[in-house]
Amino acid sequence: TLEAPASISILEERDILQNVMTSSAEVLRNVTGVDMATTGIDRREIVLRGFNNAFSGATYILTDYRQAALPSLAVNIHSIMPNMVIDLDKVEIVRGPGSALYGAGVDAGVIHYITKDPFSYPGTSISVNGGERSFFSGAFRHAGVLGEKVGYKLTGQYGQADDWELDPNDPLDKVQLTNEITGEPITYNRAYQKVNVNGLLQFRLQDEMTLTFNGGFSALDATVLSGIGTVQADGFGYSYGQMRLQAGRFFAQGYINKNNAGDSFVYGTGLQVVDNSVVTNLQAQYDFDLTGGNTQFIVGADYDRTSPDTKNTIYGRNDDNDLISEFGVYGQSLFRVSPKLDFTGALRADYNNIEDGFQLSPRAAFVFKPSLEHSLRLTYNRAYSLPGSNSLFLDIVGRRTKLTDEFAIIERGRGTRTGFTFNSARSANGITASGLLPVPGVFGENIFQYSAAGIPTQNVPLAAVYGILYAGLRKTPIEEVQAELANNGLSLPTAIIESFLNLLSPVELQPGLPTTNVTGLGTSMLLDEPIDVEPLKSTITQTFEAGYKGLIEDRLLFGFDAYYTKKNNFISGVTQITPISVFTNISAELTPALATAIAANPLLSGALTQAGLDAQTVAALIVGFAAEDLARLPVGVVQPDGAGNQVPGEITGGYRNFGNVNFWGFDATIQYLATDKLTLFGNMSYVNDDFFDNNELEESDPGLYLSLNASKFKAKGGFAYNVPKGISFNASGRFTKAFPVASGPYIGGLPIPEEGDIGGLKDYFIIDVGIGYDLGQYFTGARIDFTVQNLFNDKHHEFIGAPKIGRLALGRLSINF
């Protein structure tokens, strides 16, 4: 890789097989520049050089030239990728943007898993793994050749385990175990299970012509972090089919990826996840030489079609209008300026049905080789990332806040393909029938009664408001109520307080509550002015990079890459876009009404009199408990223009483009071949910032910020000792500096005040060790390996929302014949 015009790492079969692992993605854990967050026993969120997420799809991941992400969602679920350890030939990792060759969305690096072909690797392999947490997995690979022209391969694997558990005594975990809406505990299914089956047929039509057909199916049962909350994958299926042709220097392929979400659902809401989306991709590429081999050209074209199908559960009203079609053409030239200097230039043009016009992705690189053992590199890349299907088409109820048995506040997430405007609301000061719609789940459909002039008045019964207040009061621990009363000079035993609370129920007070409504619109106000949201644009990434690689005496390999990146038009998470109207004097109106109802109840008023209390005092105390919440009680929602946008009363959240951010970093790596048996390695990565507030993003809204969701500084190192047909052992250590997380509902450790921030991660340093022995002298092709991950059982979180990760001891018996 010394001559490559990019920052590249390659893992060979020996690197892949030296450790036992629950996921083939773990082979990447010690690679330079890789940010890996373990979120479960077989779940990893992996990116290159930061900007990780729950449900991450930032890095472009391929398996045998086919994009391996889930269709539509564009999420990398490594658990169901067909990348079995016993079938991997090598893994290529390319850091930095790659849109010039790969297309839209390739702005955060490429990871390419390449499996073994049947002609080069015939035979049968079987592995059986087991370990702590009831982990068990089995995998097989069988490949052969029929005659000299036809090769075939079958692979399969099964895995199960008891997943890592959330700790109710840990502050970070306790939040995940509690339903933030109802306050009730959430019980997660910690049983993990997966299955994967694949098949391949390969035809050698001529000496330099190969036609390959392959396909497979995967299914997963596990808890998975996602952008809308923790999902229970229940039979979440993924299937694919691929055909590719290699004819000399011509390459073409077509593939289909398809989802089947099974019976998956979102914890906390019970929302069913239905996803039968399909991605279809066609590609063709040809390379040739000119000027006697001094100039090499690559030209190509591809077409990608994403067809979401969620049966109106995820994309709602957009489910029939959510197709994404992308077409791209590209060319790349390698020109040998001199024996020591190469120039690589590339340009790609993409067109899609979402944005107007073409997107251009240029690339330029100079590689200077003063000698065969050393190279210097200077590169520029521009990449663009089209907004994903969720950002464009989402239409789903994200939260249903239950206030009483009858009333709830509904919040809906919406995609922003066409944007949102509020001209109607602004023209009438936000109070016309079309501009301000009720929250029907809070007080019923008839909150507003419109006069002949179109001016609405609130029609909210005071009794309904008290019902909401009382429901919140009963959720408050009795000890907190006792303490608040003591602060007001009333020392009462909890038993008496409990009896009073029972007598204060809406059922007991209903006869005495006035039948009047909260007064008119003059007592409410908009919390925020409506702000138009423009249609989403692509995120643009520009990266300048300089690198060096050197090999000293064929033993010491050193590499250093420094980069500077500019990103524009980030896409935010779901943020509220519809302002709400709230009451401003509801406490003042409710207090005398409640006092009247208390006084009208002989049993309650008599008990209070014996305790030395009067109705007015008790009413003021009760309303005071909830004064802050009542002041934010939504009664109206300003709706966007357009009939299709007016879902009465739902608070709408959507995506926005925002921010311009610049950051820099570097990666350094060293590998030393001490002997033909002993190899030592070390690497470190640094980014100058892991959190960008609104000032750094050049935004006025303090609610707009961006987290790297990955560590500013990480270091890895270790060694491997291998004796052919004998013993081998290895050890590695990884240090990760703590970092803030802001990814969908998972927020923690932010350097700014933020509602919902539950605290942050901590630095961690973990050591893995492994030992193996070749059993060939006893049984040909047999080998046994043991690995202990996190040797010293340093229980730690690697992402907000995920459980603590502790020690995991694993063993593997493998046989090749």
Write a structural description.
There is one protein chain. The chain is mainly β and 817 residues long. It has a single domain, classed as TonB-dependent receptor, beta-barrel domain (Maltoporin, Chain A, Beta Barrel), CATH 2.40.170.20. Helices cover 13% and strands 45% of the residues. The strands form eight sheets. It has a 22-stranded antiparallel β-barrel. A five-stranded mixed beta sheet has the order 1-6-7-4-5. Strands 22-23-33-30 form a four-stranded mixed beta sheet. A hairpin with a 4-residue loop joins β34 (657-673) and β35. The longest helix is centred in the middle third of the chain and has 14 residues, at 462-475. It is globular. It starts with 6 loop residues before the first strand and ends with a strand. The relative contact order is 0.11.
CATH class: Mainly Beta
Question: What is CATH's topology name?
Answer: Maltoporin, Chain A
Instruction: Please give the share of residues in helix.
Output: 10-25%
N-to-C terminal Cα separation, in Å? 33 Å
Mean pLDDT: 87
Q: Give a quick account of the main beta sheet: strands, pairing sense, barrel closure.
A: 22 strands, antiparallel, barrel
